[in-house]
Amino acid sequence: MTKKVTKKAAKKAPAKRAAKKAPGQRELSARGREAMFAALAAADPEPRGELNYTNTYTLLVAVVLSAQATDKGVNKATEGLFARVSSPAEMLELGEEGLIAHIRTIGLYRSKARNVMGLSRLLIERHGGEVPRGAAELEALPGVGRKTASVVRNVAFGEETVAVDTHVFRVCNRTGLVRGGNVRVVEDLLVERVPAGYRRGAHHWLILHGRYVCRARRPLCGECVIKRWCLYDAKEV
């Protein structure tokens, strides 16, 4: 006799719901990013950095000197320097000790002086005294890392690069513009997601916003032009 086997109806597994992101992990939508940059652009149509320079070479020198220093401090130190020096050849003629005499008030001035002399020498030897446009060529110079190269390429050559410093990193993660655990991740996400038309100025808008409004301590949320889209949970408006 054949034993009849009854099959129990299989219960349908409930559909998985997309996990909600915690408040500190949420990111702006493409529409939100567009609106945020439009507001920043409306408030400052032609953003520019605050370092003083006279040409592409002095821009490079100023950015190298600005590492772990304020733009205000660098500008004070380079005022007399750039009145005398405007090319790699003139920097080498001035000499390392002569350079130190101008930049002694800047942190790490000795190592920075060595780097400036080294990059000036290489600019003459490899590039005919001109500042190269390519990232690889710039980053091969003493004292020039990815961030410095990005600033020079953006400001001097109009490249749509985004240098991520502490201000940009904070603004992006705090507002939800993009989120990342390190500066390289944030940079890559910005390059990918900043709307066309805002890429050239993105670096300046974010730095200036972080420096003067979205400060590390006591951000001025009441004065913020992008507060409508900001995802910062502790914002005060």
Describe this structure as you would to a colleague.
With 237 residues, the protein is an all-alpha fold. The chain folds into two domains: 27-47 and 161-223, Orthogonal Bundle (Endonuclease Iii, domain 2); 56-157, Endonuclease III, domain 1 (Orthogonal Bundle). 52% of the residues lie in helices and 0% in strands. The chain is built from eleven helices and no strands. The protein has helices spanning 30-43, 56-65, 71-84, 88-94, 96-103, 109-127, 135-139, 146-157, 166-175, 183-193, 199-212. Helix 2 (56-65) runs antiparallel to helix 8, helix 5 packs across helix 6 and helix 9 (166-175) packs across helix 11 (199-212). The longest helix is centred in the middle third of the chain and has 19 residues, at 109-127. It is elongated. The model is unreliable at 5-23 (pLDDT under 50).
List strands and helices in order, with pairings.
Blueprint: H1 30-43, H2 56-65, H3 71-84, H4 88-94, H5 96-103, H6 109-127, H7 135-139, H8 146-157, H9 166-175, H10 183-193, H11 199-212
Question: Outline of this structure?
Answer:
This protein is an all-alpha fold and 237 residues long.
Annotation keywords:
Endonuclease III, domain 1, 11 helices, 52% helix, 237 residues, mainly alpha, elongated, Endonuclease Iii, domain 2
* Topology order in helix (H) and strand (E) letters: HHHHHHHHHHH
**CATH-defined architecture of the largest domain:** Orthogonal Bundle
CATH homologous group name of the largest domain:
Hypothetical protein, domain 2
The number of helices is: 11
Stretches with pLDDT under 50, minimum 5 residues: 5-23
Q: Can you tell me the number of structural domains?
A: 2
Structural class: mainly alpha
Describe the largest sheet: none
Number of strands: 0
Mean pLDDT: 91
CATH class of the largest domain: Mainly Alpha
Content of β-strand: under 5%
Helix content: 40-55%
Q: What is the fold-level CATH name, i.e. the topology of the largest domain?
A: Endonuclease III, domain 1
Gyration radius, in Å: 25 Å
